[in-house]
Amino acid sequence: MTLDHVLAARARKTVYRDGDTAVKVFDAAYSKADILNEALNLARVEETGLAVPRVLEVKKIEDRWAIVTSFIEGRTLSELMKEHPDRKNDYLAMLVDVQLSVHHKVCPMLSKLKEKMERKIRAADLNASCRYELLTRLESMPRHNKLCHGDFHPSNILITRHGTPYILDWSHATQGNASADAARSYLLFCLDGDYDAAEIYLKRFCQKSDTARQYVEQWMPIVAASQSTKGKADERDFLLSWANIADYE
Amino acid sequence: MSDRFSAHAIRSPDDVRRAVARLREAQIRYAQFSQSQVDAVFHAVALAADRARIPLAQEAVNETGMGVMEDKVIKNHFAAEYIHNAYKSTKTCGVIEEDPSAGIRRIAEPIGVIAAVIPTTNPTSTVIFKALLALKTRNAVLFCPHPRAKDCTAAAVRLLARAAEDAGAPEGLFACVDEPSPELTGTAMREADLILATGGPGMVRAAYQSGKPAIGVGAGNTPVILDDTADIRHAVSSILHSKTFDNGLICASEQAVIVPESRYDDVKEEFRKRGAYFPTADETDRLRRLMLINGALNADIVGQSAASIAAMAGIEVPPSVKVLIGEVTDVSPAEAFAHEKLSPLLAMYKARDFDEALDMAARLVEDGGIGHTAALYLDERVASDRSARFEARMKACRILINTPSSQGAVGDLYNFRLPPSLTLGCGSWGGNSVSENVGVKHLLNIKTVAARRDNMLWLRTPPTLYFKQGCLPTALCDLHDVYHATRAFVVTDRVLFDLGYADRITQPLEALGIVCTVYTDVEPDPTLASVRRGAEVMSRFAPDAIVAIGGGSAMDAAKGMWMLYEHPETAFADVAMRFMDIRKRAAALPPMGQKARFVAVPTSSGTGSEVTPFAVITDESDGTKYPLADYELMPHMAILDIDLMMEQPPSLTAASGIDALTHAIEAYASIMHSDFTDTLALGAIERIVAYLPRCYHNGANDPEAREKLAHASTMAGMAFANAFLGLCHSMAHKLGAFHHLPHGIANALLIEEVMRFNAAEAPTKMGSFSQYTHPQALERYAAIAKALNLDGDTDEERFEQLLALIAKLKEKVGIRACVRDYGIDRAAYDASLEEMTRQAFDDQCTGANPRYPLMDEIRELYGRIYEKEAT
After folding, report:
1. Burial of B647 by CB count in 10 Å (0-12 exposed, 13-18 middle, 19+ buried)?
2. Disruptive mutation site among B75, B294, B366 for chain A (greatest number of A CBs within 10 Å)
């Protein structure tokens, strides 16, 4: 095994290509439980029949944990959008279609979206009043069991030479309400500063899934609060401003 | 006191459970308090709350940073003074209502421990409100505050708890969650006996999902329409007064003003003059961005003043500005101003006309405040039709007219019959169990004690009954002298007409100057078609008196015609609907006798139709018999003159005599019998037993026997017109109809078997009627035997004697022993059993039978009467 072909380098993990496999190597400090959970999530999603990389191996390389998956040759939707700005709308439409195909699946053994959100809101740096509002709102949201990716944005969609979209990075996957998943996608565009794409995306999602925009919006402060725990300081103020809402009385 | 509160701090779900257990103990002690003890506590706590109204308001504003201190004083004051005043005399303990004669008692019981969710917007006044309601109803309360208002809420709870204890209430009726979280609120909801949830939709939904009964209320999005007829000065000042109250924190506060085009500029000018600010298009946009965060209300603007909200949006306004009014057009949630704003922000819409205004208001209510409140300004005197349309259209549980909605919806301030409350139900539209203003009645369990009482009975007869041989011409004078009739319609059958019976009516009437016509087209079992034909002729003649002369058929047909003549729209099937209680029927006849009086003159002794409100009409198209039954069909006058009865052949005397006997026996044993009907029924039975054989054998030669029999028949008719009949008649109706047996014969064949069936002391099911306490048929039949002086030491023996007497009587008058003896084919009889059984079960007469028959039992009874040896 030679790990010199870097596919992607993130803050606490690096993905290498090794022949027809991809090897995601985590920092030494990375939670072992999170790594094993990510591999397990991916293995479970494989069983749904969606086009995703297959888990081949979880192992230690020197001191560090790594997940070995099949390597998929292709370009991410975000790369394609940058290269073909004129086709951006088409790519956004494709993004929505792929996401809806995910939402059509169920994956009963994954953890529950509402429970995960509750943990995140508790951990968020919010005042007691705001946390109370958000937890109360979360509690009242409907309990669904759709497969949710949890980090669904163009850089996680890989399009092969034949045009088949593959969905990468299932570390945040849960089962729950699809509108929460859409609210997160919308939020991710906004965090990138691409408000136009966010609007186009959300309109398209609501139209194709026959969902009221207000329904997706109900999830936004919750999703923003949960995103704020990811620890990116520059994003925190923005996310917390989204969470500062009052429920009507 | 405060020591106990801090000793029992509530910070975890286990703390909540322990707190509820302590509250429950205190509540059990408090539940023993009398009304006067409770009222003393209620009064003392209301006074304490009154006294603390200003410090509590200050604490609320200081802690939450929302609202207007002076307005919160009003809310506290209202919650203390108005709630005390509204309920100070209300009975909430023990027996609160009693009507011994009706046997009804209502007893108020407490519910137990109430979980009270307290909002940030009214953190102290809601505590006062819920605490007072709970004290008045002997409940304990666990208060669940909002984190933003936990200290002032807790302070209010402690103050009221202390006041309650000082006034003699048990220690520990109130507790308050110290570290509020949805988890603790949820635990409190699950542990309590009832939830009083005031809060946002999420909180209210959580309450309803907790599995405990919940009284929750939700969001409001009050639209207000200014009609063309509204007084603009009054309306604008009212709206500003309401919208600025506590900086718009009241859930019923106006959110959108809808103004007709014609008045728009005037209204805008008036608003400006009274201190409202209309932002420019750009400023409106800035406010939109400020007020909503992805469709949700920005917590920073809630309960802030118009000036500080303007400052947050970078808009310069004078500090005195009261309200910021966005002029907008879209009523959908895509428009930020269309949302509930909990602040002095207001939307203003221009409507083409009242119709468009209604559409806009309806949409605003449905999207943002369904079930809550809607308001309308108009001139009540000239525009009540518009008010009615508004009331019909709004899905709002409070519709306020010419009233500031913040202060108006809480009741007793601008209308004095709307109960004062700080918890406003939004009905099923808002997902609530309550649609009114919540009050003490919602915190009580009411036990209703219902003691058994006898059903009211009655005796209804024709107003006039004339009798004695030769009385007919004299009796008919009443048509002229009393009824002032001028046109008489005589109904009879062809046979009697040919015998000259109609002349006996028309001659005396014509001599009195009454114009008469005679209708003779009446068949033995009158059909619907013939009745309709008769009613047409009757309508053309337009009589003011109807005289039916003949047997049951003529009288029944005449009643049918009379009904269609008076009420041509009557549906036969409706009036014939079987009833459980003749007074509670779904279909009843409108009053009769407005066009014509009805006089019945029987020529045979059997049906009793001259004194009953019944008639049987057959639909010839499908054979359905419509048993019409309605006291409106009671004749106004019956005339018994045996001169008209002398010509009866013995067979008719026998059949109709036995018919009358079964009327009397069934009325006597009916579950609805009374002293009055008993006397009539026994009198009839005695006369029939004594005189029927004589009459049968002697005919016209024995006028005394004829008269006794005539009277007996009418007495039996009066008995069953009020006590009704039983299973013998139910089965005889179908036996006669299916096998063409005269009605009297059909009854004769059945009566003994049915009496045996009824006499069972342990019947499968007994008849249902309040005063029918146990199976009584045997003792009733034995009582008939006693009245007839039959021997016997026991009821059973006397009953057997009665049966033997009936059998002998039948034999004496030539009635055969069984169905077979009337030439009915066995196979045809058997083939009819199922349908006869079904129809007999469904016959109206079945309901009064002392034994409620099962279908199998009816079938078996039919089986028994086919073949029998004469005794």
Report:
1. middle
2. B294
Of B93, B152, B251, B397, catalytic: B251
Q: Which fold has domain B648-871?
A: Dehydroquinate synthase-like, alpha domain (1.20.1090)
Instruction: Name every chain A residue with its beta carbon within 8 A of the beta carbon of B294.
Output: 217, 220-221, 242
Instruction: Report residue B849 CA to chain centroid gap.
Output: 28
Q: A195: distance to nearest CA of chain B, Å?
A: 13
Question: Considering Cα of B478, then B480, then B485, then B491, what sign does the dihedral take?
Answer: positive
Angstroms from A7 CA to nearest CA on chain B: 36
What's the pLDDT at B694?
97
Give tens-digit pLDDT for B477-494: 999 999 999 999 999 999
How do residues A137-187 score in pLDDT, each as one tens digit?
A: 998 898 899 999 999 999 999 999 999 999 999 999 999 999 999 999 999
The residue type found at B365 is: V
Domains of chain B, residue spans: 2-217, 222-414, 458-646, 648-871
Type and span of the H or E element at B195: strand B194-198
Q: Give all domains of chain A, ordered by start, each with its CATH number.
A: 5-70 (3.30.200.20), 75-243 (3.90.1200.10)
Torsion angle, CA of A18/A22/A25/A26, rounded to 10 degrees?
A: 170
Closest-CA residue of B relative to A239 is B293
- Rounded CA-CA distance B299/B293 in Å is 9
Summarised one tens digit per residue, pLDDT across range B848-866 is 999 999 999 999 999 999 9
Within a 13 Å sphere around the CA of B648, how many CA atoms are in the beta-carbon half? 32
In the predicted model, what is the mean pLDDT of chain B? 95
- Asked, colleague to colleague, whether B2-217 and B458-646 share their fold, the answer is no
| Element containing residue B327 per DSSP (H, E) | strand B323-327
Residues of chain A found within 8 Å of residue B218, distances taken between Cβ atoms = 248
Going by the DSSP 8-state scheme, the letter that residue B147 receives in this structure is G
As assigned by CATH, the class of the B458-646 domain is alpha beta
Tell me which residue in B182, B295, B299 faces A246 most closely, judged by beta carbons: B299
Nearest-angstrom CA–CA distance, B132 and B49? 9
pLDDT above 70 (res A63) = yes
Residue A17's SS3 state is strand
Determine how many CB atoms are found less than 10 A away from the CB of residue A83: 9
Q: How much is the ipTM here?
A: 0.84
Tally of CA atoms within 13 A in the half-sphere of B529 that contains its CB = 6
pTM of the model: 0.88
**Which option is the CATH number for B222-414: 1.10.510.10, 3.10.290.10, 3.40.50.410, 3.40.309.10?**
3.40.309.10
- Measured between alpha carbons, how far is residue B226 from residues B358, B752, B785, B843 in Å? 11, 78, 81, 61
Burial (CB count within 10 angstroms: exposed 0-12, middle 13-18, buried 19+), residue B622: exposed
Pairwise CB contact (< 8 Å): B205 & A140 = yes
What CATH class is the domain B2-217?
A: alpha beta
Q: And the tokens for B477?
A: 């004078």
Does B182 reach chain A within 8 Å, measured CB to CB? yes
Measure CA B750 to chain center: 40
B68-75: long-range contacts, CB 8 A cutoff, minimum separation 24: B68/B244, B68/B245, B68/B246, B68/B247, B68/B305, B71/B245, B71/B246, B71/B247, B72/B122, B72/B124, B72/B125, B72/B246, B74/B245, B75/B122, B75/B124, B75/B125, B75/B246, B75/B422
Please tell me if residue B340 touches chain A, with a CB cutoff of 8 Å: yes
- What pLDDT, on a 0 to 100 scale, did the predictor assign at position B94? 96
Is the CB of B199 less than 8 angstroms away from the CB of A136?
yes
Instruction: Tell me whether residues A217 and B340 touch, CB distance under 8 A.
Output: no
State how far the Cα of B858 lies from the Cα of B846, in Å rounded to an integer.
11
CB A25 within 8 A of CB A59: no
Give the Cα separation of B161 and B167 in Å (integer): 10
